[in-house]
């Protein structure tokens, strides 16, 4: 997998962070579900550490998981019963400070201070179990998919009324949106689809220097990727279908070793293996829906990710695919949790 430069490759380190747990009703996520089955799953966050040529370390967090105090909007509170039992201990900030207990973290001392040590936070999408507690990070610059701030403020059509969101969920003056993505077809072009929010003149956001030339480019089977640091170490991947502005990350861990953070491209590893298909359930209006805004678009995004992993493997590159809500991966990878590494 070539990087778009003749410079020596740059690698990052990746650590998983516990950021709460929720319970997923199986029928909402996979086909041929076991009736009544619920599975307690993690809502994983990730710490990505990027070394600059001068030796300084940039700390980036991908997703913040579940809010520590479950202080959601009234409309969101109504739906929380669906996801019970919910566990908020340990949350993202606590994992950063103290490490993840079964990863061999020290019992005393602060590993990373969320109030001053985190430079960037990328939120994969606007759903409640990924936005966490942004106020825990008063100095970080947030980066989100195009349209996210509008989505928080105004919602997006009948599936996403504005009361499902907090209009000030993220600190607007410290948030930068990735460039818009041009699409062919209906998805993202609906009259109610959220609009891009440019940086205001009084912004306090401090995006990386590479932001001046951010643009979407194909990368293997992935249609639209953006080089976050400009050195081929971390790519933002546009992954439409689940909800507007949904993004993934592709992190370069070694010469031929990568990790793909798939967020909510799917919620069950059996969709990756082909054992199951996306689940459909009653939409409350006499029809069927899935957990995705656009089921067909979400399926295409997942298919691209699966093809990318497979084809890179055929070229001798290892790409580890990690879902945000995979209890099996979490159980098998305690060693990869902070302060450990993937």
TrEMBL record:
Keywords: Hydrolase, Metal-binding, Zinc. Gene3D superfamilies: Ribonuclease Z/Hydroxyacylglutathione hydrolase-like. Coiled coil: none annotated. GO terms for molecular function: hydrolase activity; metal ion binding. The keyword Cell membrane does not apply. The keyword Zinc applies. Signal peptide: none annotated. Its cofactor is Zn(2+). Belongs to the metallo-beta-lactamase superfamily. This is Metallo-beta-lactamase domain-containing protein. It comes from Hypocrea virens (strain Gv29-8 / FGSC 10586) (Gliocladium virens).
């Amino acid at each position: 997998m070539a990087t778009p430069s003749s410079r020596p490759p740059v690698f990052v380190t990746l650590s998983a962070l516990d950021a709460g747990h929720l319970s997923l009703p199986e029928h909402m996520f996979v086909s041929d579900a076991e009736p009544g089955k619920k599975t307690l799953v993690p809502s994983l966050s990730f710490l990505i550490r990027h070394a600059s040529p001068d030796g300084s370390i940039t700390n980036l967090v991908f997703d913040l998981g579940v809010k520590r105090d479950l202080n959601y909007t009234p409309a969101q509170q109504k739906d929380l019963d669906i996801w019970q039992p919910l566990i908020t201990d340990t949350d993202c900030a606590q994992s950063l400070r103290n490490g993840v207990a079964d990863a061999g973290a020290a019992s005393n001392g602060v590993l990373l201070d969320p109030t001053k040590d985190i430079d960037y936070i990328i939120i994969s999408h606007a759903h409640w179990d990924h936005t966490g507690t942004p106020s825990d990070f008063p100095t970080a610059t947030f980066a989100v998919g195009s349209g996210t701030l509008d989505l928080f403020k105004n919602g997006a059509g009948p599936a996403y009324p504005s009361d499902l969101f907090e209009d000030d969920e993220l600190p607007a003056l410290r948030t930068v949106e990735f460039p818009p993505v041009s699409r062919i077809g209906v998805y993202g072009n609906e009259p109610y689809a959220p609009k891009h929010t440019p940086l205001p003149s009084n912004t306090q956001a401090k995006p990386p220097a590479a932001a001046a030339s951010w643009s979407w480019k194909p990368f293997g089977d992935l249609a639209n990727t953006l080089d976050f640091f400009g050195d081929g170490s971390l790519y933002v991947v546009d992954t439409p279908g689940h909800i507007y502005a949904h993004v993934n990350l592709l992190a370069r861990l070694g010469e031929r070793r990568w990790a793909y953070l798939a967020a909510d491209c799917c919620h069950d590893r059996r969709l990756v293996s082909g054992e199951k298909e996306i689940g459909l359930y009653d939409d409350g209006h006499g029809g069927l829906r899935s957990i995705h805004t656009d089921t067909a678009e979400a399926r295409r995004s997942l298919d691209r990710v699966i093809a990318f992993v497979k084809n890179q493997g055929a070229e001798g590159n290892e790409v580890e695919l990690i879902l945000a809500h995979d209890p099996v991966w979490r159980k098998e990878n305690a060693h990869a949790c902070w302060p450990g590494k993937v």
